[in-house]
């Protein structure tokens, strides 16, 4: 990134090159893993609570959190905790929150009204009695 003197010098090709740059290498359960700039940007983009990455130390701290989350998940899987109902429900809830956040970010102001409409439609669908003895 240091080779660009202004943001205007970054074009699509340069941006793709930057996003594919290796950022770090680490090991979890004796498996070597790599993270590039794009993976880090995606991780940061979907953090529920963001803090500004102003210094090298801020970036390193965020990278450490990223690795710790992956390590904790790998440990849970290794111990079989991922099979527990509470773990799966928490995981589903977390992913749902990320999807909603991404949806809101991509649609801006109109996202809330679309979400309300979808919620109302889903609620109405769930209220329909689908039992065999229900009257038409």
Order of strands across the biggest sheet? 1-2
Mean pLDDT across all amino acids = 78
Overall form: flat
Describe the main β-sheet briefly: 2 strands, antiparallel
| CA-atom Rg in angstroms | 21 Å
Write the H/E string, N to C.
HEEHHHH
Question: Helical stretch count?
Answer: 5
Instruction: Give the beta-strand count.
Output: 2
- What structural class should be given to the helix and strand makeup? mainly alpha
Q: For the terminal residues, how far apart are their CA atoms?
A: 65 Å
Low-confidence stretches: 126-131
**Helical residue percent band:** 55-70%
Strand-residue fraction? 5-15%
Assembly level: single chain
What does this structure look like?
By secondary structure, the protein is mainly alpha-helical. The protein has 5 helices and 2 strands, in the order αββαααα.
Give a quick set of tags describing it.
two-stranded antiparallel ribbon; mainly alpha; 2 strands; single chain; flat; 136 residues
Brief sketch in words of this structure:
This protein is mainly α. It is built from five helices and two strands. A two-stranded antiparallel sheet has the order 1-2.
What's the topology here?
Elements: H1 12-19, E1 22-28, E2 31-36, H2 37-45, H3 56-78, H4 85-107, H5 111-127
Antiparallel strand pairs: 1-2
């Amino acid at each position: 990134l240091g080779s660009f003197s202004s943001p205007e010098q970054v074009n699509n090709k340069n941006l793709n090159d930057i996003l594919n740059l290796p950022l770090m290498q680490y090991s979890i359960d004796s498996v070597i893993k790599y993270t590039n700039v794009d993976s880090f940007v995606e991780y940061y983009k979907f953090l529920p609570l963001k803090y500004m990455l102003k210094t090298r130390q801020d970036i390193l701290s965020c990278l450490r959190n990223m690795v710790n989350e992956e390590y904790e998940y790998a440990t849970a899987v290794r111990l079989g905790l991922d099979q527990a109902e509470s773990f799966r429900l928490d995981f589903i809830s977390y992913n749902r929150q990320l999807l909603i956040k991404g949806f809101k970010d991509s649609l801006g102001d109109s996202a809330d009204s679309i979400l309300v409409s979808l919620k109302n439609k889903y609620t109405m669908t769930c209220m329909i009695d689908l039992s065999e003895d229900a009257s038409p």
